[in-house]
Design goal:
This protein is α/β, with parallel strands linked by helices. It has helices spanning about 5-15, 20-30, 35-55, 80-100, 145-155, 185-190, 195, 210-215, 230-250, and strands at about 65-70, 105-115, 115-125, 170-175, 200-205, 225-230. A 6-stranded mixed sheet has the order 3-2-1-4-5-6, with helices on both faces. Helix 1 (about 5-15) packs antiparallel against helix 2 (about 20-30), helix 2 packs across helix 3 and helix 5 (about 145-155) runs parallel beside helix 6.
Length: about 280
């Protein structure tokens, strides 16, 4: 019996019932298994083609550009308007970062404070997601070594700072001397692989800051540390940091870092120097 005659016989015996349709399908699958395979392959090919088309239009996620601030919040920072200037400067910096384009780089901000104890005041997050920055309160001693440990742990955490991230920016500012065992944590931070690749900037606030330690922290030989003599200088420093980071985030290669320069002060307004 020929193939066509065989199919006709099935139809005539079952008269178009579901049983006939099922038997026909089984017979087709048995005699022509490649047809079913071809359908599956074709479907997979079509799906792959659609995925390829989608990838062409997909926008790659911006790479993180971490900015980590280590800020002195000890009791002495409560004098002469230092903590107020620091709070205002940090808020302004984060607000500016939040407005930046995220086409190529996403600026992320983390804030470690050391005043009485070292703590992560603001976990490393995208600047545009910061809805409010809790103000720093000046209190206690200066456990800078513990802050160095926190900074190193954050830098080495590849879940928080993935390998695709741009070179981090580390900013250290203080108006005094460390009050804990800071030498070993400081050495461990400076010698960590990621800290060596990071841009490290330091500001000495007032005449009592440990300038030698701050100078060792910074790795920009052209501008080792910035000395803030009054509250206005703190604002100037953070405006320069903001300009440096935003310029990087908008550049073709955000890993390229120019020399950090703080512009000269304006002539308007008089601030008393920190005593």
């Amino acid at each position: 019996m020929g193939w066509a005659k065989y199919l006709e016989d099935i139809v005539s015996r079952h008269n178009g019932t579901s049983m006939a349709q099922a038997q026909l399908q089984r017979e087709i699958d048995r005699r022509h298994p490649r047809d079913a395979a071809k359908m599956t392959i074709n479907q997979l090919a079509q799906r792959k083609q659609k995925m390829t088309s989608l990838k062409k239009f997909a926008v790659s996620a911006p790479r993180p550009l971490p900015v980590i601030v280590l800020a002195d919040a000890s009791g002495s920072m409560g004098e002469n308007g230092k903590i107020e200037a620091l709070n205002a400067s940090l808020k302004s910096m984060v607000a500016t970062f939040a407005k930046e384009s995220r086409l190529r780089a996403e600026i992320q901000v983390g804030l470690i404070t050391f005043g009485g104890k070292a703590q992560m005041h603001l976990p490393l997050v995208a600047a545009h997601s910061v809805t409010g920055l809790t103000e720093l309160l000046a209190d206690g001693v200066t456990p800078m070594g513990a802050a160095f440990d926190l900074a190193r742990q954050l830098l080495e955490d590849k879940d928080r700072i993935p390998s695709r991230a741009y070179r981090p920016v580390l900013i250290l500012l203080s108006d005094g001397q460390p009050t804990d065992d800071w030498e070993a944590p400081f050495k461990a931070l400076r010698e960590s692989e990621r800290a060596q690749k990071a841009t490290r900037i330091a500001m000495a606030i007032g005449p009592d800051a440990d300038e030698a330690m701050l100078r060792d922290f910074a790795n920009d030989k052209e501008a080792p540390i910035f000395k803030a003599h009054n509250a206005r200088d703190i604002h100037r420093f953070f405006r320069a940091v903001t300009m440096s980071v935003t310029t990087r985030s908008a550049s073709q290669n955000p890993d390229v870092v120019d020399t950090f320069v703080v512009p000269p002060p304006d002539d308007d307004g008089l601030d008393l120097d920190f005593q």
